[in-house]
Inverse folding.
């Protein structure tokens, strides 16, 4: 199957009542791990690259690795998504390269650190939506600001500093016409999200449910959705790591989100933990080894295991064969003739 639009994957997920994991990559082994997990569980999947990943891997390497994945796994619906685009130009360059969806994170200014005003966010996101939809590419926006920093992108601080206001979310969706919307409900990027198992005081699932009621046609996106499992932390620390005790987003909370409009679930940290733990284990247990394959193979297998587990937990497992790809050209026609419009009616409460 050619690379497909994220919008198609999310529309299908909405029909089926499941979520789709969006897993971050920087290199070939991570793409291989995700594709093997998708094959193992028969799952559609979104692979995403941040600006940091694009700089690390270089666009051409990344794009051709993604084409290889699509070629080697023709049975898997696969979308290639830009994570946290910081400007129109970043999104434009991703679309020109061949990404099938982009995130315009206008919640921050182009420095990727300073919270932007609502008006600034609307203006840049709308510009990206107009450009992208004309080309059949779907767009994720963000309203509210996530906590933490990922690949140098983020306002830092707690996930509760700038949670999403439901009224603003509705207005934002109406004014921009985004396909999907990342909301801030207390999560943050990275391993250090919560100091104990999160409850409603720090992870605002009620807010998510309220936003979904107001925006039933807009697919919601949960960023910062790593669960930071204790067993992955323990492996790292057992083999010389120094992670401090921490909690992520429990899988059951993500599943509650999926019941309430979450269609895209972003996971990066859990895979980083799995990879690092596996590599540390080889280094400590077999210090005589020096062939990178001796530690990259277990690292890749450890990531595959986490991704496959999430695919089952998010419900996307078993759904790869449900549909055939809509071409990007046909997606463009759908945006032009109004069949893909997601705008809510302003004021419809
Ligand atoms: P985690 O750091 O929780 O994996 O979040 C990743 C993410 O949201 C990517 O945008």
């Amino acid at each position: 199957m050619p690379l497909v639009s994220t919008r198609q994957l999310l529309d299908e997920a909405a029909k089926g009542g499941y979520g789709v994991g969006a897993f971050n990559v920087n290199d070939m082994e991570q793409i291989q791990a995700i594709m093997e997990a998708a094959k193992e569980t028969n799952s559609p999947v979104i692979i995403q690259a941040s600006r940091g990943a694009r700089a690390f891997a270089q666009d051409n390497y990344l794009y051709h690795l993604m084409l290889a994945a699509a070629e080697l796994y023709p049975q898997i619906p696969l979308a290639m998504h830009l994570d946290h685009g910081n400007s129109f130009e970043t999104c434009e360059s991703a679309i020109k390269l061949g990404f099938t969806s982009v995130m315009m994170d206008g919640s921050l200014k182009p420095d990727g650190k300073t919270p932007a005003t609502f008006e600034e966010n609307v203006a840049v996101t709308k510009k990206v939506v107009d450009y992208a939809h004309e080309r059949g590419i779907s767009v994720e926006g963000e309203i509210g600001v996530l906590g933490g920093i990922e690949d140098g992108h983020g306002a830092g601080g707690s996930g509760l500093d700038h949670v999403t206001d439901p009224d603003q979310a509705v207005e934002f969706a109406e004014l921009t016409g985004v396909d999907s919307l990342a909301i801030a409900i207390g999560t943050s990027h990275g391993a250090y999200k919560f100091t104990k198992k999160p409850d409603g005081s720090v992870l605002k699932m009620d807010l998510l449910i309220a936003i979904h009621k107001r925006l039933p046609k807009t697919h919601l996106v949960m960023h910062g959705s790593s669960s930071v499992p204790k067993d992955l932390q323990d492996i790292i620390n057992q083999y010389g790591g120094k992670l401090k005790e921490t909690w992520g987003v429990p899988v059951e909370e993500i599943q509650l989100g999926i019941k309430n409009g979450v269609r895209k679930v972003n996971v990066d940290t859990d895979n980083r933990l799995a990879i690092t733990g596996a590599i540390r284990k080889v280094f400590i247990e077999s210090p005589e080894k020096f062939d990178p394959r001796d530690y990259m193979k277990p690292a890749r297998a450890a990531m595959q295991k986490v991704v496959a587990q999430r695919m089952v937990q998010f419900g996307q497992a078993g759904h790869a064969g449900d549909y055939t790809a809509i071409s990007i050209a046909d997606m463009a026609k759908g945006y032009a003739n109004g069949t893909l419009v997601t705008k809510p009616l302003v004021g419809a409460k």
Notes: The pocket of 1,3-dihydroxyacetonephosphate is lined by residues 24, 83, 150, 189-190, 223-226, 266-269 (CB under 6 Å). The mean pLDDT is 95.
